[in-house]
Amino acid sequence: MCLKKTSLLFLFLSLLLLSAHLLSAQVLWAKHLSEEALVTPEAYTYLLLEEARKKPDPESLELIGKAIKVSPDDPAPYFELFDRTFSLHPQKFFHSLNYLFKGISAYTKSFWWFFNLTGILSGAVLTALVLIPIIIALSRLPLDIPLMAHEIEENTRAAGYLLVLLPSVLGPYYFLAAICFLSLMHLKGRPRYAGYLLLFVLIFTPLLSAYMKAYLSVSSSPEVKAAVAVNEGRSNVYATEVLRGKAEDPLRFSYALALQREGRLRAAAEEYRKLLNSGRDPRVYINLGNCYAGMRRLDKAIEMYNESIKIKPLPSAYYNLSMLAREKLDFVAGDRYFQQASDMDFDRIAQFRELRNDLKKLALMEETLSERELLSFALGWGMNNLKPLSVTGPLLLTVFSFLLIAVLFVTRESSSMASRCQKCGKLYCTACERRIPRVGMCTECFRSMISFESNPAERIDTIVKTHNYLKRRRRILSVLSFTVPGLTLFYGGRMFSGLFFSFMFLFSAAALVFSQIFTFNIQPYKHNWLTSLLFLMLVFFYLSGNLYAIRRLRKGWL
Ligand SMILES: [Zn+2]
Ligand SMILES: [Zn+2]
Q: Rounded to the nearest whole angstrom, what is the distance from the C-alpha of residue 556 to the centroid of ligand 1?
C-alpha cells in the first residue's frame, strides 16, 4: 500500500476511535441506591464515581483514585479514569491507555466482569457458527440445486444424498450440518477441505449453547450472586438470607463467612465445624480460628491456626498467630510469626496492613474462595443439566458430522457429479456428454475454442452466450460484495477466505450486540472499551473482506 493510502486509513481509523470513544463516554447510570446498600464498598465506589462525574478535573480524579483504593479489583474506576484522562496528545494518550489496560486486567480479579466476558465471547462464536452455514447455503445452494436436479434426472439414486436432511428433526444443529454438506458437495479440490473444517467445528455448537444456557442461569442465580458478593468482600447481608441451609461446600463456606463478617460468630463457627466434616481445608481452620479469637477464646484459635498449618502453611495463619501472640504479650513469638508470614507473601501482608491500619482492634486475616474456585463452581452449577448422550447433546452430533465428513471425502472425485460449464453455465455430466474435456467447460464451448473450422455463426453464438453468462454472474457477484463479507467469496467458490472473513465479521457483530446486553451484576457499568474495539473490528472486516472480494472480482479470479 502506498503512503498516501496508509495515512488516509490511519486518519479514518483514528476518527472512528474518537467517535466510538465519545459514544461510549455516556455510561448508563442507575437512579439511586437504597439506604442499606450504602455500607458496601461496591456502593461506596459507585457513589464516589458518581460524585466524580459532577466535579471538575483535579477533584474528580482524586475521587476516582479513592474509589480505586476502596475496591482495587473493580475494573469500573479504571475505565472511568481512562474516560476522564483520554486525550490524543501523544504523552497523555499512553498515560490514559495505561488505565484502560489496568481496567482490562482487573477482569481476571472480578468475578462478574470476567464471567460476562466469557458469555459475550462464547455467545458471539456460537452466533457466527450458526450463521455461517446459513450464509453458505444461501450463496451456494442456488448454484448447486440445479446441479442436484440434473443428477437426479440422470440417475434417481443420486437423490439419496437428500437423506442427510432427515436427522434435522432431531435438532437445529443437525440441520445446519446437513445444509453445509449439501452446499459443499459439488466443490472440488482445496475448497472441499473448508467443508471438512466447517463440519468439524460445528461439533462444538452444542457445547457452546450449553455454556450459554449455564451462563444465563448463573447470571440470574441468587445463590451464586450472594456467594460472589461475600467472597469479593462486597456484601454479606444478602448471603446470610439466601445461602442458609445449602448443600454445596462453596455455598456453605460463603454462608459461614457472611455470618462471621456480620458478627454472628457462634453461628459462623458452627457452620465451619460442619464444613470440616466433609473435608479438611486449611482455610476453614483459619476462619474458624478467627471466630474463636473474636469470642476471646485465644487458645482455641491458636490451636485452629496450627491445625491449618499442618495441612498447608498459609501466610494468613502465621500472621494471625503473630497477632494473637502479641495479644498475649509474647512479642518474641509475635515477631517470629510475623517474619514467617511476610517471607511467604510480603505483598499480601503489606496490603492487608495498609487497609486495616486501625491497629486498636484485633485485625485478623481471613480466607476466601478464589476467583477460579467461584468460576468453576458457578459453571458446574449451571452445567449440571447438560446431557452429553441426548440427541441435542454433543456426542450424537459428533458422530453425524464425522459421517458427513467421511461421505464428502469418499465422493471427492466421484465422476457421477454434474458440473457447470465455466464459459456458458450449461450443466453437464458423464451421462449426457460422453467425452468431458478436463478444463471445466462443456463440449460445445471446448470445440469452439480449439477448432477454427467450425461454423462461424455457431462460434459467434457461443461467444455471445459466454458473454451474457459471465456478465450476469459478475453482476450478481458485485451486488453480493456489498453484503456480508465472505458471501461473494462463497459464491465464487473461495471457501477458506470466505470462512475467515464471514467468521470475523459475524463474530464482531454478535459480540458487539452482546457486549451491550451481557452486563449482569455489573450494572450500571458496561464493557464500553470492548464495544468500541468490536465496532472497529466490525468496520475493518466489513471493508477488508469486501475489498478483498472486489479486487479478486476485478482481476477475474472469482
Ligand atoms: Zn459451455
Ligand atoms: Zn447429464
A: 18
Q: Is 430 exposed, middle or buried (0-12, 13-18, 19+ CB in 10 A)?
A: middle
Task: Among the bound ligands, name the one nearest to the CA of residue 462.
Answer: 1
- pLDDT, tens digit, for every residue of 223-279? 999 998 888 877 788 888 889 888 889 999 999 999 998 889 999 999 999 999 888
Q: Are 207 and 413 in contact (CB under 8 A)?
A: no
Reported pTM: 0.82
Nearest of 467, 457, 475, 476 to residue 423 by alpha carbon: 467
State the cell numbers at 482: 456489498
What's the CATH number for 221-382? 1.25.40.10
Q: Which parts of 417-516 are beta strand (E)?
A: 419-420, 427-428
* Ligand 1 centroid – CA 411 distance (Å): 24
The share of the chain scoring above pLDDT 90, in percent, equals: 38
22: Cβ contacts below 8 Å, ≥ 6 apart: none
* CA 149 to centroid of ligand 2, rounded, Å: 10
Q: Cα–Cα–Cα angle for 370, 333, 358, nearest 5°?
A: 60
In the chain, ranges of CATH 1.25.40.10 domains: 221-382
How far, in Å, CA of 483 to CA of 273, rounded?
Answer: 64
The CA 474 to ligand 1 mean position distance, Å, reads: 17
| Cβ atoms of 86 and 107 closer than 8 Å | no
Residue 246 C-alpha cell reads as 445449602
Opening angle at CA 96, ends 94 and 102, nearest 5: 100
488 sits in which H/E element: helix 487-491
Range 34-109: architecture per CATH: Alpha Horseshoe (1.25)
The ligand placed nearest to the CA atom of residue 148 is 2
A 10 A CB-CB count for 282 gives: 20
pLDDT tens figures, 283-294 = 999 999 999 999
Mean pLDDT value of segment 132-136: 95
Bridge-partner residues for 419, per DSSP? 428
- Ligand 2 geometric centre to CA of 491 (Å): 23
